[in-house]
Specification:
This protein is α/β, with parallel strands linked by helices. It folds into two domains: 158 residues, P-loop containing nucleotide triphosphate hydrolases (Rossmann fold, 3-Layer(aba) Sandwich), CATH 3.40.50; 125 residues. The chain is built from ten helices and ten strands. Strands 2-3-1-4-5 form a five-stranded parallel beta sheet, sandwiched between helices. It has a five-stranded mixed beta sheet with strand order 7-8-6-9-10, with helices on both faces. The longest helix is centred in the last third of the chain and has 23 residues. The radius of gyration is 20 Å and the shape is globular. The two termini are 20 Å apart.
């Protein structure tokens, strides 16, 4: 079935990495296509039997009025196009660090200049956030702030390979010490639960390891918390679907993102195993993030 992935988001958040991954996966990819050519390009490739999957990167550099893109997306879906929109984002401090390391010039530097004053990098980043805000509302957001290129490639691959469904449900564990992910729609705090970190034998393990899982399952409060979160999601997920939302990311946090949040995400994933598509992400696994569909 012919499918289209639109990659968008904040400059420096990993769009090039995502586009290269899609190219390696067999997608016909194009970067920075002027909006006025988007519909024509997709129509042309749709009629080419040799092309089944297309990925297009759209961002603040793209010629054309970005406010028109949501309408273009609706038109594509109206004619049966299988469409995924992925918005990559990072916190401002991470973006500043990445630009400092690469020594790249922000693509909106000239546009952000006012009265002959050279804008700061932060000025450019905030201008870009403002310009892309309408697109963010129509996309699945991935926060790449603490992700490596390999982790990002895995997360994008899991998302675009998910089956078509009214709502993509994602459970994601994270560490509060690193901040709440920008991609979170719902956030639940597990820091009030008993902490395996204080058991030296459990400290180097994660919530996916059997000894930690058994330790947490033994505490009634942990099961009660999971029951409450499950009830909340079951109660309110239909409302999100009625709001024509395509993606819902449930972020589960604890202090280090290694034990309690990981265990709770794994348990919730089992309880919602019947929902398709269902994605699972762990941001902190021995310093690495993991993801799966």
């Amino acid at each position: 079935m012919f499918s289209v992935v639109l990659i968008t988001g904040i400059s420096g958040s990993g769009k090039s990495v995502a586009l290269r991954m899609l190219e390696d996966a067999g997608y016909t990819c194009i970067d920075n296509l002027p909006l006025r050519f988007l519909g024509e390009f997709i129509d042309t490739t749709r009629n080419d039997e040799a092309i089944e999957r297309v990925a297009v990167a759209i961002d603040a550099r793209t010629p054309g009025e970005l406010a028109e893109l949501p309408g273009i997306m609706s038109s594509l879906q109206a004619v049966g196009t299988r469409l995924r929109v992925v918005f990559l984002d990072s916190d401002t401090n991470t973006l500043v660090q990445r630009y400092s390391e690469s020594r790249r010039r922000h693509p909106l530097t000239d546009r952000a200049a006012r009265n002959g004053r050279q804008p700061s990098l932060t000025d450019c980043i905030w201008l870009e956030r403002e310009m892309l805000a309408p697109l963010r509302e129509h996309a699945h957001v991935i926060d790449t702030s603490d992700a490596t290129p390999g982790q990002l490639r895995t997360w994008v691959r899991d998302l675009v390979e998910a089956d078509v469904a009214p709502l993509v449900l994602t459970f994601e564990s994270f560490a509060y010490k690193l901040g709440v992910p920008n991609s979170a729609d719902l956030v639940f705090d597990m820091r009030c639960l008993p902490n395996p970190h204080y058991d030296p034998a459990l400290r180097p393990l994660t919530g996916r390891d059997a000894p930690v899982a058994q330790w947490l399952a033994w505490h009634p409060a942990v099961g009660e918390m999971i029951d409450d979160v499950e009830r909340f999601i079951n109660r309110w997920m239909p409302q999100y679907q009625q709001d024509t939302r395509s993606y819902l990311t449930v972020a589960i946090g604890c202090t280090g993102g290694q034990h309690r949040s990981v265990y709770v995400v794994e348990q919730l994933a089992k309880r919602f195993a019947g929902h398709r598509p269902l994605l699972v992400r762990h941001r902190m696994q021995h310093g690495e993030a993991a993801g799966r569909a």
